[in-house]
Amino acid sequence: MASDKQVRFIIVGGGIAGVTCAEQIASQFPSDEVYLLTASPLVKTVTNFKQVSKTLEEFDIEEQPSRVLEEKYPYLKVVQSAVKLLRAKEHLLQAENGQTFHYKKVCLCSGGRPKLLIQDKPHVLGIRDTDSAQEFQKRLSKAKRIVVIGNGGIALELVYEVEGCEVIWAIKDKAIGNTFFDAGAAQFLIPSLEAEKKDRSLPCKRSRYTTDKTGGYSGTSGELGSALGPDWHEGIELKGAEQSSSGVHIEYECEVDEIFTQQEFLQSKLRTKKSELGMWPAYVQLTNGKVYGCDFVVSATGVVPNTDPFLHGNNFELAADHGLRVDDHMRTSEQDVYAAGDVCTAGWKPSALWQQMRLWTQARQMGWYAARCMAADVLEEPIELDFCFELFSHITKFFNYKASGFARQV
Ligand code: FAD
């Protein structure tokens, strides 16, 4: 059904940044039709928001059907369709379902996708949305050994949760979790990796992530769901093929040199005693010279901003990490196009105590602030960079220990 719509505000993306932005605009302009265009059938909503201190906040995230938002804001319309085309100069946005929107202001909140070490290798998996988490679970259930690459939040959570499967964890740093905590805290956490699962169950009190009671998102492959968050594995049994509990072996200060399929490995000229490594579906050669056979590799090495649908025919300035560069009003280099969340990169000179990290908290803060900037620009009112960008702070949980942190001065 093709149709043209004139709208003042349109937001792209049903993740935390997009939903927060849409809710804020809808509450500031309660009689304006606001459109939220999203590729995923469920939207992420922030609930139980608590301001713990001036900069620390705690909240729950729920994945809900879009009607929940529409019931709360009568003039907020959620359209489940991906953006096909953006013509920024003409202020025109076209959705896959044929609808065309002529907007005054648009905010792009399309998130990121896993930065895979190697593209198109059947034995390399990334974890991003419910679909990929389920694929991981399926493969894990038959696996005896996996190799996990990366030292961020996803890798930390994963190595701790996996049972019944040996984990080789390769990190490029001297200590685990160094983007979140110092080497002393890392040493404190290491024994938790060896503890039996039953001994680990401390009460967990922190931001929770829940999915819609209907069973959550189950898009067809190729559809892009929202990024998961803490507790993404809740309700998914992360159990390998072995009866005994898992062992985690950490390889420090190394990266992946090469990943081979079994056939490639056998034909390779590697000077390793191949027969000693056993027969595995895949082999990983690390930069420290070691080679491990495994069932598959989890590439948990961050995300790439999901900018592809918007670049063609437009003139966006991109940052070094390929995010849409935004100024201190969350404006991209294209007029009336704003961006927030994982898709964007802060282009202003940051305070010494703030750094961008692609996390829930910042997606929410950016979505909220982008909406306030769009509103201020429409109303021709001044607006200053929000205080939340003065000091980086985050509450989360590592190995079942609640942790809150602030930025270190760099
Ligand atoms: P997303 O949540 O990715 O939402 C993007 C939205 O855009 C989706 O709705 C998608 O369908 C839509 N979209 C994409 N392309 C199009 C298009 N062309 N047209 C229309 N819509 C489109 N953060 C933490 O703070 N703590 C954690 O413990 C944590 N754990 C994580 C664990 C995992 C496994 C992952 C993947 C991420 C984790 N994160 C965590 C990061 C956090 O989830 C993200 O930073 C945050 O969700 C980003 O929100 P966003 O709204 O920018 O993007």
UniProtKB/TrEMBL annotation:
Residues 9-162, 246-367 form the FAD/NAD(P)-binding domain. It comes from the Eukaryota. GO terms for molecular function: oxidoreductase activity. Its cofactor is FAD. Keywords: FAD, Flavoprotein. This is FAD/NAD(P)-binding domain-containing protein. The lineage of its organism: Eukaryota, Metazoa, Chordata, Craniata, Vertebrata.
